[in-house]
Amino acid sequence: MRVRRLGELEAEIMDRVWQWERPASVREIVDDINRGRTVAYTTVMTVADILYRKGWLSREKSGRAWMYQAVRSREEYTAALMQDALGDSQDRRAALLRFVERMSREDVEALDEALRAARAERPSGASGGAL
Fold this sequence. Notes:
By secondary structure, the protein is mostly helical. 58% of the residues lie in helices and 11% in strands.
């Protein structure tokens, strides 16, 4: 599945929903965004509806308002973007090497830990690429 990078307002909305980890109304989202810049209620309502139709948000009616909640985590979104970018490469091994060369020591250590955890969880002979 190809994942398109979120637009600026889409990302702002998702950032709040991910951070709050609970259902949120458009009014709450608008009020929070308006602390840093002005955005219209109807604009946020439209973009939240778009995110719902794209499958990024679920929604449930609460009185007259929709309450929105993230369907996928920020980490799933980031991983999908990384997978898409890697899939665009002719030489995946070289792309991974260049990526790791630019990582901080802390990120390399976190990647190493993630690879160890993935190897421990994956039964031998499982498909999905060698770890």
